[in-house]
Amino acid sequence: MTSESVVRDRSSGTVTADASDGRRARRQAPRRAAGIWDPSRRQMRALDRLRAQEAVRDPELLPLRYARMAASPWTYLRGAAAVMAADLATAPHSGLTVQMCGDAHILNFGLWASPERQLLFDARDFDETLPGPFEWDLKRLTTSIYVLAAAEHLGNRCAEDAATAAVETYSQAMRKYAGLGELDIWYDRITSDVPLRGLTSEFAEAAARTVEKQARKRTHHGTARQLVSEEGGRRHISLDPMKRLDEGMTLDQRVQGYEEFYDTYLTSISPHLRRLVHRFRRVDSVRQIIGVGSVGMRVWLHLLEGDSGRQPVFSQAKQATASVYEEFLGPSEFTNHGERVIVGQRLMQSASDIFLGHMRVHGHDYYVRQFRDMKIIPSGQQIAGYLPQFAAACGHALAKSHARSGDPAAITGYIGRGPAFRHGILQYARAYAAQTRTDHTELRTAITSNEVRAAERAW
């Protein structure tokens, strides 16, 4: 092996071959074999996988979680990352390790502002992040495209075009990153116009206006206008449904809880940021219910106000538990799962929230981030009109994220230039989209038979 063919693996620090390493990985995980999905390899029912997560979630919210997942195969897929993780682990994988998003479905990509206030396009959800094989993220992304296209009644042709665009753009972008230096990869950014490329000018302009409008509404001031009320001279958060942080607590418990919250968070951020955080005081705190897969996790929203009186800031603390992939890939190197999440986020994103931090309160791990702060999260209906273009942008963003932590030359060597890799990924995605529909039906049957309790409201 020549010295030119040897590189240092960015994620583990070990020395590995580059493109030739990827070609050798095909022996243990042939690219066309990646298309095989065999449900007989499951060690337990999908429903039992879901129920195994109940122990780490708030039992009050479990009926709401199941109700949201039962709404459609699309909402089921969003809540069933644990099921898909177990299913991915039933077959050989490439062994080419990256920092996985872990839940790279198509609506877990979106826009948010860098610290310089530039809107960037990137992966946005990292609750399940963990080092693992690159193709697992790509399989979840393409599966989600087929499921979402069916939910939006877009037809098989649109689904095929979008899924193909995601895989091909991922492969092309990874090939580009394989030819770049480390800093060039690290500094690369995907701007907000990328998901709109290839559209007619009229459609692109309308979409750009929507993005600009949403970005203005989702600033801290815009969020305050939507969520803050004033009563008796005191501001408080208005959400439905919600619980106040101090509900049912004595004064001593409230003081202890607040002190524990801030002290543990402050130790996780850089000293220069502590100076900034100390300029804000907490005005109000409420418990939130968010998403589909996150229902049952403990999530707190805090309204902070700066000493100037002119700068409201919303800080969100979200419970973090073990990644669903740890059972199959080994435990995280981090003892606090909040830290696991924010380190994974910083590895994958070109620019991250400056307030990211972690804590452990009352035995639960949390990560902390700004709430909204120009974050634009698309809906299926919003991207239905340009799904292939949006899917291509997601493939590009995923490749960028993987190239930051993995070996793009090795991944490119594994993918190759022929159609084998694309065919394998798309075949798997079609089969697993069908499996998702079957699993969704199983959940609905369990609800009908009262094996699982579902409710539309909480609190």
Automatic annotation (TrEMBL):
Start and end residues of each stretch annotated as Disordered: 1-36
InterPro entries: DUF2252
One Pfam family, short name: DUF2252
Compositionally biased region (Basic and acidic residues): 1-11
Entry-linked PANTHER family: DUF2252 DOMAIN-CONTAINING PROTEIN
Protein name: DUF2252 domain-containing protein
Species the sequence originates in: Paractinoplanes aksuensis
